[in-house]
C-alpha cells in the first residue's frame, strides 16, 4: 500500500484517490491475531534479549506506521469509503485519509485493548484530531466497544452516511470529480497547509502559508481560475 500511495502522490495523471474495501462484508476486520502470534515479530519472543526484541519490534511498528502514514503524506486528497466491519486497522487507515464516508451498516471499533495492546499504527495519534470529543475518543479506545455509522457521523469521524456501499462510492466519485476539476496547485497546497497546521500554532501556520503561497501565487492557475470566473466558463488546469 505504501508503494501505491507513494506512486499516486507524484503521478501527474492523478488528482484524487478513492480508497475502498473489496467485497461486501468488510472494509477490514483488522489484525489476524492467529497469524500474528504464530509468525513474525510477535512470535518466538521467549528467552530472547529484551533490548534486541524491543529493537526488532520498534522497527516493525515504525515500518507499519509509515505504510499508513503514506495515505496522509500523499499529495493528492484521499477519500475513504468504509462499509461493513471497519475494525482496528480500518480506523488507522481512515483517520489518515482526508475525507471519510461510510454506509449505514458500518460497524467501527478500536479493538486493540481487547487483544492486550494499545493501538500503535496511528489511531491514538489521529483520532483525537478528527473528531469533536476527546471524551468520546477515550470511551471507544478504552472500552473497545463497537459503534455505528450514526455515532461516527455525530462526532465527525465521517462526513456522510449512505445506504449501501455503491451509494457511498457514487458520492465519493462525485466529490472526487469536483475536487479534480480544481487547480491541482490549489488542492495540493490546501491539503499540505491543513495537515501541517494540525500540529502547529496558528502563527506558525500563517507563516508557513505565507511562504507556501509566495510560490503558489505565481502559478498561472490563479489567473486562469479568476478569469474563468469573470467570464463564466469552466477553467482547465495543467497536470502537476
CA-CA gap between termini: 22 Å
* Count of beta strands: 8
- Spell out the CATH superfamily of the largest domain: 2-enoyl-CoA Hydratase, Chain A, domain 1
Find the structural class using helix and strand composition: alpha/beta
CATH architecture of the largest domain: Alpha-Beta Complex
Family: Belongs to the enoyl-CoA hydratase/isomerase family.
Pfam families: ECH_1
GO cellular component, one term: mitochondrion
Keywords: Fatty acid metabolism, Isomerase, Lipid metabolism
What can you see in these coordinates?
The protein has helices at 2-10, 33-38, 50-73, 89-96, 123-130, 134-143, 149-155, 165-180, 184-198, 202-216, 220-231; strands at 17-20, 26-28, 78-82, 85-87, 99-103, 107-109, 147-148, 160-162. The chain is of the alpha/beta class and 240 residues long. It folds into two domains: 2-179, 2-enoyl-CoA Hydratase, Chain A, domain 1 (Alpha-Beta Complex); 181-231, Lyase 2-enoyl-coa Hydratase, Chain  A, domain 2 (Orthogonal Bundle). The protein is globular, with a radius of gyration of 20 Å.
Brief descriptors of the model:
240 residues, four-stranded mixed sheet, 11 helices, four-stranded parallel sheet, 2-enoyl-CoA Hydratase, Chain A, domain 1, alpha/beta, Lyase 2-enoyl-coa Hydratase, Chain  A, domain 2
What's a quick, concise take on this entry?
The chain is of the alpha/beta class. Helix content is 54%, strand content 12%.
Amino acid at each position: 500500500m505504501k508503494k501505491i500511495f507513494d506512486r499516486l502522490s507524484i503521478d501527474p495523471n492523478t488528482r484524487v484517490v478513492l480508497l475502498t474495501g473489496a467485497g461486501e462484508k468488510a472494509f477490514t476486520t483488522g489484525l489476524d491475531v492467529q497469524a500474528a502470534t504464530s509468525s513474525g515479530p510477535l512470535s518466538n519472543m521467549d528467552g530472547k534479549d529484551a533490548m534486541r526484541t524491543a529493537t526488532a519490534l520498534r522497527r516493525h511498528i515504525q515500518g507499519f506506521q509509515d505504510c499508513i502514514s503514506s495515505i496522509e503524506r500523499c499529495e493528492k486528497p484521499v477519500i475513504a469509503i468504509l462499509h461493513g466491519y471497519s475494525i482496528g486497522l480500518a480506523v488507522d487507515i481512515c483517520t489518515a485519509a482526508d475525507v471519510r464516508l461510510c454506509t449505514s451498516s458500518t460497524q467501527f471499533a478500536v479493538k486493540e485493548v481487547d487483544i492486550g495492546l494499545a493501538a500503535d499504527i496511528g489511531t491514538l495519534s489521529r483520532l483525537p484530531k478528527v473528531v469533536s470529543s476527546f471524551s468520546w475518543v477515550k470511551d471507544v479506545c478504552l472500552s473497545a466497544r463497537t459503534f455505528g455509522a450514526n455515532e461516527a457521523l455525530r462526532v465527525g469521524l465521517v462526513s456522510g452516511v449512505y445506504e449501501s456501499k455503491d451509494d457511498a462510492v457514487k458520492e465519493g466519485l462525485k466529490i472526487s470529480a469536483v475536487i479534480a476539476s480544481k487547480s491541482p496547485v490549489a488542492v495540493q497546497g490546501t491539503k499540505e497547509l491543513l495537515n501541517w497546521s494540525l500540529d502547529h500554532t496558528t502563527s506558525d501556520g500563517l507563516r508557513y502559508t505565507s511562504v507556501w503561497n509566495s510560490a503558489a501565487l505565481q502559478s498561472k492557475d490563479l489567473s486562469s481560475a479568476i478569469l474563468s470566473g469573470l467570464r463564466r466558463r469552466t477553467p482547465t488546469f495543467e497536470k502537476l
